Amino acid sequence: MPELRRDPITGRWVIIATDRARRPADFVPDRVVVKGNGLCPFCPGNESRTPPEVLAYRPGGQADQPGWTLRVVPNKFPALRVEGDFDRHGDGVYDRMNGIGAHEVIIECPEHALSLSQLPEKRVEDLFWAFRDRILDLKKDRRLRYVMIFKNHGAAAGATLEHTHSQLIALPVVPKRVSEEMDGARRYHDLRERCIYCDILRQESEVGARVVLDTDHFVALCPYAARFPFEVWIVPRRHLSHFEQADIPTIENLGWVMRVVLRKLDKVLEQAPYNFNLHTAPVQDPEMPHYHWHLELSPKLTRIAGFEQGTGFYINPTPPEEAAGFLREVGLV
Q: What percent of the chain is predicted at pLDDT more than 90?
């Protein structure tokens, strides 16, 4: 029997289409295959083909030269620019302002053929240190309200270059979806005086059916109202609203957890494309008792079509309990 499930944070409904439940082998994803490209601007030796780096991890050597293990550069074709002022004004019922912000690319490794899941654990950890370093730097600009960090892995997930990378876009406004998530968490906190994410962690840990793995610092789970097949959330056990305030043990463990989750998904879904987003509080806001930073990771196995666009409902053909079971069975890879 199909089920309608309601996300307790946002109030969003999803349809778990159990009558057409799909196992991993039933999906035919656009498998991510790296073909190689000698003209790749992200490869060592091609540093001059990107804007000057704003951050790099390297054991030695000069800026904008080979020898780095991770590199952050402004996007050559940015969605937003740091220079200028807002020039806010109305046009009748419409509001507009200049596209002030920042758009950066985090080049995750120098090796063109490697994916994030194939990197050593310390190199995956370094990616999260880079996220933290860039957020801490960008939040000094008081014009910026929100820093969205995301990854598109594979052409089907929106990646235009195959060399593994993430992106950062700093915005002068808080995105609507982020506001909806925070508002839902605030309503729950106002009613029960508890963080809904902390309550979800307690309940999911007790039930276990949707838990993929857990450590002293994190729980990785398939959410109850999962929008997509094999959607996974990585949620820290310690309550903290801002990712950039995470301590050293938390970020060290996050590298291990992310690597394991990605390798499990690669094994079960045969290297399917995916997206992930870092959900964190607005950078200019103080610590929030109701909000809890986390990562949301969604393999690209289904397509959003007319029904989803018209209703805001998602149809998920794989119950999250089954998805979590498949991922647990893989073990540590």
A: 78
Alpha carbon dihedral 312, 317, 322, 328, in 10-degree steps, equals -80
Q: Which of 18-32, 88-102, 151-165, 180-194 is modeled with the greatest confidence?
A: 180-194
Q: Are 275 and 300 in contact (CB under 8 A)?
A: yes
| CA of residue 71 relative to chain centroid, distance | 19
Kindly report whether the global pTM for this prediction surpasses the value 0.90: yes
Cβ(89)–Cβ(96) below 8 Å: yes
pLDDT-derived band at 100 (thresholds 50, 70, 90) equals: confident
Percent of residues in the chain assigned helix, strand, coil, to nearest 5: 30, 20, 45
Dist CA 220 CA 235 (whole Å)? 6
Residue 86, domain CATH = 3.30.428.10
* Residue range of the domain that includes 265: 3-330
| Cα gap 280→282, rounded to integer Å | 7
Q: Position of tokens 């490869």?
A: 43
* Contacts for 79-84: CB closer than 8 Å, 24+ residues apart: 79/103, 79/169, 80/169, 80/170, 80/171, 82/141
**103 — phi, psi (to 5°)?**
-140, 115
Strand 3-6: give its sheet, edge to edge. Answer: 3-6, 13-16, 314-316
Domain count, the chain: 1
Closest CA to 243 of 120, 121, 154, 134: 134
Burial tier of 88 (Cβ tally within 10 Å: 0-12, 13-18, 19+): exposed
Which amino acids are annotated catalytic? 165
Q: Say yes or no to pLDDT of 294 above 80.
A: yes
